[in-house]
Structure formats: structure tokens, C-alpha cells
Write a structure and sequence with these properties.
Length: about 325
């Protein structure tokens, strides 16, 4: 018997190369949770289809995401790492859950409205059903805890409501209401210092890049906008470089910058150079492991196929209970 204290599930979209925001906001946390929980992590390729029309890169992006997760420290001997579309039970559960989902609840969600605004030419049915598929992901694995960022809070709340509706309508308790576990990292801003870091805004810093590329991206970072000249004192409290120093840089460096920036003792260029160096150093073991894994793509796919097999076993057990509860013949 395992000594772990509960079941964690999370899904991550195959966006290609992960950036610092993905790493600090999600991946690092996924890795840490393995110590205490039975974890199931899913690369959600079906969810990706709601926004991605050109799927040429989908396979490669799924693979790259697996590399990132494994290199970051996901341990596939204990944790289940798999690809969403490899477990078709999720689409069956999605259909069943859709029957206890009022459509207005879906179209009212801010996440749906936002996507509809972003892609007015492609407001597809899948986009409306996105939270239902996400709920199916979560409940299929009898999940207790879902580690996600605040942007997903409404989806988790939706999942809880769907579970209650399902259990009520079919007079059962086979589905479990999950709890959200908010990742404790402050929002990671992009190099523009304004928006949340994201690939689509091209304000991101890739974690698997070459050190020189990372350095160039860091040098582009916007700092305290009030600090125009080198001789102006800066304010680390409003500087995005400093907020990342606080997360990634050894404490003594960060403390030094906090003092020196305020009295113009260190300039933004030197501060960024220091950060780039520290960031590259911090990412070095990850990058080495990633390069190592990339030597053998077949082994990486094997990990995913193995994970999918294990996931299907759990999913099918849940579906047997669900079909029974619903009264499907
Ligand atoms: N919607 C999540 C996101 O955009 C991804 C996701 C899909 C997910 N299914 C999930 C997250 C299940 C947690 C649990 O990041």
C-alpha cells in the first residue's frame, strides 16, 4: 500500500516549448506534489484542438511537453504521465456529464467569452464544452486535488457543480468533488513587464533554450519604467526582473540588488546580466536531462504509452461505475 495522502490530477496543454511561467507556475509544483500524492498528469491534446486549427505540430508539441515534464523531475515509475486522447473513456464521460450541464453555465464562463473574443471565426462546440471535458478529465481519476493557476478556478468550481448534479440526478456517489490547490507562485509576467508570460504574446522566456538565447531574452526585459537613466535610483518593488530575482536568484544576490538598485549602485543592464547568469545556472540540470532524454524519443513515447495504459485501467473502472449509476444497459 502506498503511504500517499490523496490523488492529484492536472492537465497541461501541449503548447510546444514551455516557458518560465509554465515552469514556475505549474511544472515545478507538479514535481513537488509527487512526494505526497499519487499523481496523474495529462497532456491535453484534445483540449488543444479547441484553439489549434493547424495540427501539424500537435504530435511534436506533445512530445516536447513530455520531455519538459520528465526533465523537470516527473517520475514515471510512480506518477502516471499520459496523453489525453489515448484514453477515449474521457470523451464518453464528457458526453454523459454534458447531460447534467446547463448550457447557459458554459456560455456564461469568462474563459469561454474570452476565447470567443479571441477567435470569433472559430467559436466551436468544443470550446463551449471545454470545461465539461476538463471535468471529465478530473473525475475519471477519482481526483481529490487539482493543482492549477487562478485562471482555472472557475473551471474547478464548474467541475464541483457537475459532480454534485451528476451524483444527485443519478442518486449515487461515484464521482468525487475535487478541491483546487492554487499554485503558490506569484503571477509570472512576461519580458514586457505588463502581461502574464505567454507564448502567444511572445513575451516569454523558454526554459529549454540555449543559454545565449535566454540571455538575449532577459536583456530585453522591461524594468522599472521610472528609471530612465543609469544614475536614477530604481524601485525593485515594481521591477519584473527583481521579482524573478526573488524567485530564482540566491538570496544574497537578491538582497544586494534590493539595496543597490534603490541607490543606483547597480544598473539595469548589470542586474539583468546577473539574472541571466543565475537563470541559466538554475536551468542547467533541467537542460542537461532534457538533452539526454531527447537522445531517445522512442523511450519517451514508451513512457507516455505506458502511462496511458495505466490511465485507461483506472478510467475504465470509473466508467463501469458511471454506466451502472446512469443505468446504461
Ligand atoms: N484548462 C487547463 C489549462 O488551460 C488544462 C486542463 C485540461 C486541465 N484539463 C485539465 C487542468 C484538468 C487541470 C485539470 O491550463
Amino acid at each position: 500500500m502506498s503511504s500517499k495522502i490523496g490523488h492529484v490530477f492536472s492537465g497541461i496543454r501541449p503548447t510546444g516549448h514551455s516557458h518560465l511561467g509554465n515552469y514556475l507556475g505549474a511544472i515545478k509544483n507538479y514535481v513537488a506534489l509527487q512526494d505526497e500524492y499519487e499523481c496523474v498528469y495529462c497532456i491535453v491534446d484534445l483540449h488543444a484542438l479547441t484553439t489549434v486549427e493547424d495540427t501539424l505540430d500537435l504530435r511534436q508539441n506533445t512530445y516536447e511537453m513530455a520531455l519538459d515534464l520528465l526533465a523537470a523531475g516527473i517520475r514515471p515509475e510512480e506518477t502516471i504521465l499520459f496523453v489525453q486522447s489515448h484514453v477515449p473513456q474521457v470523451t464518453e464521460l464528457h458526453t454523459i456529464l454534458s447531460m447534467v450541464t446547463p448550457i447557459g453555465k458554459l456560455t456564461d464562463l469568462p474563459t469561454f467569452k474570452e476565447k470567443a473574443r479571441q477567435q470569433p471565426h472559430n467559436v466551436n462546440y468544443g470550446l463551449v464544452g471545454y470545461p465539461v471535458l476538463m471535468a471529465a478529465d478530473i473525475v475519471l481519476y477519482k481526483t481529490d486535488i487539482v493543482p492549477v493557476g487562478v485562471d482555472q478556478a472557475a473551471h474547478i468550481e464548474f467541475t464541483r457543480e457537475v459532480v454534485r448534479s451528476f451524483n444527485y440526478r443519478y442518486n449515487t456517489n461515484v464521482l468525487i468533488e475535487p478541491q483546487m490547490k492554487n499554485t503558490e507562485v506569484p503571477k509570472v509576467l512576461g519580458i514586457d513587464g505588463k502581461e502574464k508570460m505567454s507564448k502567444s504574446l511572445d513575451n516569454h522566456i523558454e526554459i529549454a533554450a540555449m543559454p545565449e538565447e535566454t540571455r538575449q531574452r532577459v536583456m530585453m526585459m522591461v524594468t522599472d519604467p521610472q528609471r530612465v537613466k543609469r544614475s536614477d535610483p530604481g524601485n525593485p518593488d515594481v521591477c519584473n526582473v527583481f521579482s524573478l530575482h526573488m524567485i530564482l536568484t540566491p538570496a544574497e544576490d537578491a538582497a544586494m540588488i534590493n539595496v543597490e538598485c534603490r541607490r543606483a549602485g547597480i544598473g539595469c543592464v548589470d542586474c539583468k546580466k546577473l539574472f541571466a547568469g543565475n537563470l541559466n545556472k538554475a536551468l542547467e540540470p533541467f537542460r542537461a536531462r532534457r538533452a539526454d532524454l531527447a537522445q531517445n524519443p522512442t523511450a519517451v513515447w514508451d513512457v507516455l504509452h505506458n502511462g496511458s495504459r495505466r490511465a485507461r485501467t483506472i478510467a475504465e473502472q470509473t466508467m463501469v461505475e458511471v454506466r451502472e449509476a446512469v443505468g446504461l444497459p
